Amino acid sequence: MMILGGRSLQLVYALLILLHMQTSVGFDSTTGDYEIRCIESERQALLAFKQSLVDEYGTLSTWGSEEEKKECCKWEGVQCSNTTRHVTVLELSLLRGGSLSNQLANLTSLQHLSLGYNNFNSVKNLEWLSCLSYLQFLDMSGIDLSRVTNSLQQAINKLPSLTHLVLRSTNLTASTFQSSLKFNNSPVSLIPENLGHITNLEFLDLSYNQFEGGIPKSFGNLCKLTHLVLSNNKLDGMLPEIMGNISGCLQVSLGSLILDGNKIKGPFPDMIKNFSSLVELTLSNNQLSGTLPKSIGLLSKLGSLNISSNSFNGVITEAYFLTLSKLRFLDMSFNPLNINFSRDWIPPFQLNYLGLQSCKLGPKFPSWLKTQRELSILDISRNEISDSIPEWFWNLTSTAFQIDLSSNQIHGVLPNLSTTKFPDSFSLGIDLSKNRLEGLFPVFPTNVTYINLSENRFSGSISSLCTINAEILQFVDVSSNQLSGELPDCMARWTSLVILNLANNHLLGKIPSFIGSLSLLGSLGLQNNSLSGEIPWSLGNCSALQFLDLSYNSFSGIIPTWIGERLSSLAFLLLRSNNFSGDIPLQLCWLTNIILLDLSNNNLYGSIPRCIQNLTALAQKESSTRYYLFNNSNIVGTAWYSGTYADKASVMWKGMERDYGNGNLKNLRIVDLSGNKLTGEIPVQISVLLELVQLNLSRNQLTGRIPSDIGQMRQLESLDLSQNQLSGHLPGSMSQLNFLSTLNLSYNNFSGRIPLSTQIQSFNASAFVGNPSLCGLPLTPTCAGDEKPKSKPTDSGGKDNQEDRSEFWKSFTLGMELGAAIGFVGVLAVKLDHPWKHLCFLLFNNVRVRLSNLKDCLYLLVAAVGFVVREHVSRWGRKLKLFEPSVSS
Ligand SMILES: *[C@@H]1O[C@H](CO)[C@@H](O)[C@H](O)[C@H]1NC(C)=O
Ligand SMILES: *[C@@H]1O[C@H](CO)[C@@H](O)[C@H](O)[C@H]1NC(C)=O
Ligand SMILES: *[C@@H]1O[C@H](CO)[C@@H](O)[C@H](O)[C@H]1NC(C)=O
Ligand SMILES: *[C@@H]1O[C@H](CO)[C@@H](O)[C@H](O)[C@H]1NC(C)=O
Ligand SMILES: *[C@@H]1O[C@H](CO)[C@@H](O)[C@H](O)[C@H]1NC(C)=O
Ligand SMILES: *[C@@H]1O[C@H](CO)[C@@H](O)[C@H](O)[C@H]1NC(C)=O
Ligand SMILES: *[C@@H]1O[C@H](CO)[C@@H](O)[C@H](O)[C@H]1NC(C)=O
Ligand SMILES: *[C@@H]1O[C@H](CO)[C@@H](O)[C@H](O)[C@H]1NC(C)=O
Ligand SMILES: *[C@@H]1O[C@H](CO)[C@@H](O)[C@H](O)[C@H]1NC(C)=O
Known about the structure:
Blueprint: H1 2-23, H2 40-51, E1 78-80, E2 87-91, E3 112-114, E4 137-139, H3 149-157, E5 164-166, E6 181-183, E7 186-188, E8 203-205, E9 212-213, E10 227-229, E11 234-235, H4 239-245, H5 250-253, E12 256-258, E13 265-266, E14 280-282, E15 287-290, E16 304-306, E17 311-312, E18 314-316, E19 329-331, E20 337-339, E21 353-355, E22 377-379, H6 393-396, E23 402-404, E24 411-413, E25 428-431, E26 436-440, E27 448-452, E28 457-460, E29 475-477, E30 482-485, E31 499-501, E32 506-509, E33 523-525, E34 530-533, E35 547-549, E36 554-558, H7 562-566, E37 572-574, E38 579-582, E39 596-598, E40 603-607, E41 649-653, E42 656-660, E43 670-672, E44 677-681, E45 694-696, E46 701-704, E47 718-720, E48 725-729, E49 742-744, E50 749-753, E51 773-775, H8 801-804, H9 806-817, H10 820-831, H11 833-843, H12 854-873, H13 884-888
Parallel strand pairs: 2-3, 3-4, 4-5, 5-8, 8-10, 9-11, 10-12, 12-14, 13-15, 14-16, 15-17, 16-19, 18-20, 19-21, 21-22, 22-23, 23-25, 24-26, 25-27, 26-28, 27-29, 28-30, 29-31, 30-32, 31-33, 32-34, 33-35, 34-36, 35-37, 36-38, 37-39, 38-40, 39-43, 40-44, 43-45, 44-46, 45-47, 46-48, 47-49, 48-50, ...
Antiparallel strand pairs: 1-2, 6-7, 41-42
The protein binds 2-acetamido-2-deoxy-beta-D-glucopyranose (9 copies).
Organism: Rubroshorea leprosula
Subcellular location: Cell membrane
Family: Belongs to the RLP family.
């Protein structure tokens, strides 16, 4: 009995456990006291939802059907109600791929659904959304909803509780939205009117879509809306009409109106004063114009005003800020505004951020700044200030950590800044570049990480930089001053330095070997000083270097092999105009990231290495990730300057020296080996450098032919092979260099006919002089033998392409005589664009002459007509011979 009783008790227990499992009213097996709240059907729905996803990062590893994972309320991203036990919150991110299945419809009590920035591959239907009738918060940002805009819209209309709707970057264009209109055959995508009927809406974010037009009138009825974010669409309405449209009860509730990055036009309407709750108003990056209404000054709750990058003009006085005592962020940069406050004005506000870049504050230094005791960021660059910096200014720095006074005409001497108090911030930055400051190089506060004093008139030694807390210094640009002396020893401690630009000064001595301790250095500019000696081996420790410019100094010795072996990140290597000698080391071919190689004007001898083909970056289109200096990342914690600074270099471009900066440099692909004593042939491998834009091998002692495949290098804009001993025919493929705008082949031993192309014949004869055996335009009108009747050119296997085209060549010559006709044809071409174009390209379709545009084609057509006329009057009279090259090719 007892035993039986024991058994039945066990049975009862087992049954109980089973029951617990089914109704989810059990005990957690590990802690023993936790009630499982998860509702089984919702758990199944979540599991089925998981099935359709790709969970590459293991975000959903806590989701499972195993016993220990029974409590779905503890799953990653899931929250349940304590009272009803239903899933109420689902917040998922970092999922990669998979489809968004309709299983979520079973989570009927869901209040918060956040699926932003998941990479679902196909969203086909969103009708299930309408089952989630308790939904308050919906975020589907970053999901391509362009194919489900209709079902999204219908579902949203059935969600009475919705207060927050976030649809950033969802490809909502209206070509698929119901409200789309057809206008001039192009779909116009307007913000759907019926979003204005979700009357409980408090927060609406539709930024980064492609909406056009304005804001529908229905939005005026959104009496609870506090945040309206429509940044980065294509809105192009007039601001007064947009404001008029939303002038219902929304006026009273709206706290944040964010409209930046659109194409909104028109003036800033006076009725802004009716939006009395505005705390944040962002209109930057639009096409607004006119003067600002003084009524802005009545928005007494305004904390942030951003109108940067528009075309507002007129004079800004203190009247505009009458009651703005809460203003903290003011950005009016990039407007031609004349900012004219009276000298003793005491503003009602204390700003944290003042951005007035490219306005007009000058010529006096703005004295009202004296009152601002909480500034963190101050940018008054490009403001035509031609004054000295008043002493009180350095008192402002006790709170500011980014100060930009660059590109004014500020003059005078800087005080000793080491005693000024700066905030304990690791990203204190001072930009005083492009002014007229002078005197000895100033002593800086210890905690500075960014210093830009370039393009001033500072003199003396840079050793005062040694007072800086070296470990945190990241950026030093003191280029283009009158600094002298040697590189100070203290630099050895600048172990965080990423950018060092000392170019265009009078620095002396060698590169010290401690340069190797700057292991994060990405950019080193020492060009145009009086530095000498060999490049120290320790520079090879700077393996992060991407930019190295030692041009215009007196460096000597060989080009070290370790540059190729150890500086594998180098994208720019400029050693121009020094005294380097010896061979070009083969190891330079290891620099697979190089896009600019300038070794010109040295004493290099030997041949051009055939391995040059290994410089693969010169053969590839731009890779956006390779050059981090230009791409915003590696300079930690200082978003202020990263990305805006690009290395400056003086590049010989088409025979003229030019300064490149602001990121232009990365678009160039240049090899310049000119002005050395290089011998041997141009390696044929060079023609695989398909993206090369400029090749300069002039003033060497090169022999042999131009590689016959040179025409492959379609991007070439500048080719200089002058003053060598090159010989042979110019390869016919040169006629394919359509972008060529600078060509110099003078003073070599080339022979034969200059190849025919609209590009090549457009150069002056000077590009070809000094080659006695070269003939044809633009050098000579004809080549010897042109007058002899030529045998029929049926042999298409001729090695030189230009021979194939000799008949054409004659006609071309004649055609040039008929040049006056071109203008007439050109006019015709404009009038009759399509027919002419098609006829022309049809006629010359197979001719191996590159026709890049209609004008060229018509040019040839005229030439062809000339040929026909000529052939017709000639004894042979074979009119149709004109088209033989196309038949034979
Ligand atoms: C979700 O609900 C539908 C309809 O009520 C039902 O057919 C389906 O089985 C449910 N799915 C799961 C996983 O419970
Ligand atoms: C629900 O219960 C959990 C755990 O007991 C608790 O942390 C949470 O605060 C509760 N939530 C509410 C809204 O009561
Ligand atoms: C939007 O559409 C474009 C073109 O179809 C696509 O390249 C892009 O990835 C889409 N954006 C999102 C967020 O899916
Ligand atoms: C104003 O609202 C109407 C009706 O919703 C709309 O058609 C129009 O495009 C809106 N205009 C602007 C400038 O917002
Ligand atoms: C602005 O508000 C005033 C009164 O609060 C009202 O009379 C006026 O019509 C409003 N203007 C617009 C354009 O809505
Ligand atoms: C103002 O807007 C511009 C462009 O949208 C942005 O770059 C800038 O950071 C904004 N200023 C402030 C203070 O947020
Ligand atoms: C700067 O501040 C210090 C102390 O905070 C004060 O003694 C000094 O007078 C101020 N200098 C100027 C020029 O306002
Ligand atoms: C420099 O920054 C550090 C760290 O924030 C701080 O402890 C130190 O006091 C600062 N030094 C000065 C002189 O401001
Ligand atoms: C150039 O690349 C080829 C193929 O990757 C390799 O075999 C050769 O060693 C490289 N040449 C040099 C000098 O690095």
